[in-house]
Amino acid sequence: MAGSSRDRNSRSSSAVASAAQLVAFIPSSHLGTSHAFYSGVLGLNRVEATPQANVYDANGTPLRVTLVTEHTPSPFTVLGWYVPDVRASMADLAERGVVFKSYPGFDQDEDGIWTAPSGRQIAWFEDPDGNIISLSQPPSAPAS
């Protein structure tokens, strides 16, 4: 029924989501170790630090690394970046000590890159808490 509270709630939820800034969250069992990784390795600028969380500027998106008492890493990607050149990004991170993952059943190349059916190239690595992070190059980007 048009104009019902259900319709209004649906519209207001959509308006909030489309008009507000997205915030990404990732769990951490130790904020100091996470800071060394997210700032020192990934190069993100920390914009807020509290005893409960560190917030980083991830190219305009706030990334809130939140302290948790118990953490079991998810077996899937929880955070990722679109990059113009996945191989160059991997080389940069490898120089900083990042080790990329290989997964059984994925036809990854010798560098650990999987090419999706769409042509997107994806590589995965973990943060110190075992959270899986991806680098993803769109199919339209020039290959290196």
Indicate the topology.
Elements: H1 5-19, E1 24-28, H2 31-41, E2 45-49, E3 53-58, E4 61-67, E5 77-82, H3 86-95, E6 114-115, E7 121-126, E8 132-137
Parallel strand pairs: 1-4, 5-8
Antiparallel strand pairs: 2-3, 3-4, 6-7, 7-8
Could you describe the 3D structure shown?
With 144 residues, the chain is an alpha/beta fold. The chain has helices at residues 5-19, 31-41, 86-95, and strands at 24-28, 45-49, 53-58, 61-67, 77-82, 114-115, 121-126, 132-137. The strands form two sheets. Strands 1-4-3-2 form a four-stranded mixed beta sheet, with helices on one face. A hairpin with a 3-residue loop joins β2 and β3 (53-58).
Features:
144 residues, single chain, four-stranded mixed β-sheet, globular, 3 helices, alpha/beta
